[in-house]
Amino acid sequence: MTLAHPRPYLQPRDTHPPLDFAGYKSTGLRAPTQRPIVVPQRLTEVTGPLLVGEIGPNDHDLTRQHEGEPLGQRITVSGRVLDSDGRPVPDTLVEVWQANAAGRYAHKRDNWPAPLDPNFSGGGRVVTNSLGEYSFTTIKPGAYPWGNHHNAWRPAHIHFSLFGRAFTQRLVTQMYFPEDPLFAFDPIFRSAPEGARERMISTFDMDTTQPEWALSYRWDIVLRGREQTPFEEPHE
Amino acid sequence: MSEQLPLTPSQTVGPYLRLGLDWPKGADVVPPGTPGEIVISGIVYDGAGVPITDGLIETWQADPDGRFAHPDDPRGAVEPSVPGFLGFGRSCTDETGRWSVRTVLPGALPALDTEAQEAPHLDVSVFARGLLDRVVTRIYLAGQPGNDADPLLAAVPAERRDTLVAEKVGEAEYRFDIHLQGDRETVFLQV
Ligand SMILES: [Fe+3]
Q: Taking the model in full, what pTM does it have?
């Protein structure tokens, strides 16, 4: 039996952060020290989970998951999931999690002195439509301090998890907000190569801002495609 | 070739990943009570040998017939032969650094690019605070006859091959620890 080999999803250079990034201390004991072994993409890699799990009625609206409304600036975050060939990725799961308006996560290990919001859990999920579009309603997360170095603060961000349609397209990233003064000081944001960082920053969009309801931020996410010039990007 | 869009960079999941990524039945690749079910579990360690309690393991595998319910499989997408089989498993590490998935043995696969067959395996993504991108590895299962002829295992230096093979520790239980660094650093793959 001969089978056509599916075309691989290719990884371009100058995109992802190096695993060992000295400015981010936790990489020290966690980034593997040996180079990864480059292996061909076979059946397990060019396929991937197409499942979406269970989606609840308010999973796309983080402001409606409790009795009352959370405090903070109500926003919508929407955009498209694409691959680098420019093709929309339809019917794919997008998962998000974030801090509340005061910069505190509803997580037992987050205990810095900012208030919890009983009306905000901070987790959401949606599935893209046939055009690869997604949309969440939420509140703008606050910045928060962390222990990486003296006076370390994370710029406001929303964590995003994406599957695409192949194991090789899996991506976890963070979306940032325009013109955050903390960009200059944040090693996690700055771990991405110069020229690539800006792709993690959403744009404010007046056209889709809803009068007397919610400010709109737009953010497109681009996953690996198949037609990319085949550069390898070994992790150092 | 059409114009290429630049990719979105990866970022760490951070310490609070459970808020978005913890699924109630995420660790069940098959429903409990499935005939032939096995449990694969292990601990994720950092370079100091300390268990990582804020990590996430995801697994992806073929069904017992070596098939995928996926249109990009050139043999065609087929419904799994095991009822409720998802192929995908997800387990946050607990307070002891332990993860665990309930599944069934995957089938062997044609390698496509060589005559060889790939031995039964699961693809694995490891996410954690401190990992700016996921790292990828594979789980093979001790005692599977095809392991000796597997082309990926053959490409791994012999002295490190064991890090990709889950140990059989019970009738239907396998153990697969992951070491991000150190003497027993797991072999990671660039796919
Ligand atoms: Fe965060």
A: 0.96
